[in-house]
Amino acid sequence: MNENDFSRCQSDHCVYFRKNSDGDFIILLLYVDYMLVARSKWLRGTSKYCLNLGGSNLSLQGFVDSDMTGDLDGGRSTTGYVFIVGGGVVSWILKLQPVVALSTIEVEYIAITEGSKEMIWLQGILEELGRNQQDNTLWRDSQIAIHLENNLAFHSRTKHIQLRYHFIRSVLEDGSLKLGKIHTSENAANMFTKVISEAEVEHFLNFDWS
């Protein structure tokens, strides 16, 4: 990699990048977490769409959502998030939460914590590329965002949650990111956790994220 002028990212040693003379850069990710399996009719139906990065606004935006007990067999809930830079999607996920949550607020806590970890990882990569990130907001459509920012003290409804998921408290306290409430119709992560109409899919595909 060094022979081709790629540098290893300090935020993640599986990421390499090379800056070009025109100010652009190339990023290589040398690992695979998941395999994408798609049926041909799905591919034909979305062949006109692509991921597009551009514009002057390179501020990171994040959207997170959750669905309680989405797993009917095991009782686990689901987390979905999507991150956008320069008007294009750069990271997204839909996965089962690792534990069975005992309350709606625990489901929200776990989802927000997973989303915040991804946002901090992306912040590190962007800052190494010279794109300083400030006041990045992780958006979601529930009141827990407001509750967490306004009251970081332990509460009777959160004391049973595993300690690891209180990570979100520390990143809010040190200003690494902010939590914001957004209307459900504007939460891009809803595509991962809810059944939405074709019109809603088109809305998100054509939305101006820049």
What does this structure look like?
By secondary structure, this protein is an alpha/beta fold. The chain has a single domain (55-205), classed as Ribonuclease H-like superfamily/Ribonuclease H (Nucleotidyltransferase, domain 5, 2-Layer Sandwich). The protein is built from 6 helices and 8 strands; from the N terminus they run βββαβββαβααβαα. It has helices spanning 40-45, 104-128, 144-150, 167-173, 190-193, 198-205; strands spanning 7-8, 15-19, 25-29, 61-67, 78-85, 88-96, 137-140, 178-181. The strands form 2 sheets. The protein has a 5-stranded mixed β-sheet with strand order 6-5-4-7-8. Strands 1-2-3 form a 3-stranded antiparallel β-sheet, with no helix packed on it. β2 and β3 form a beta hairpin. The longest helix is centred in the middle third of the chain and has 25 residues, at 104-128. The mean pLDDT is 79.
CATH architecture: 2-Layer Sandwich
Percent helix: 25-40%
Topology pattern, helix = H, strand = E: EEEHEEEHEHHEHH
Could you tell me the strand content as a percent range?
A: 15-25%
CATH class annotation? Alpha Beta
Oligomer: single chain
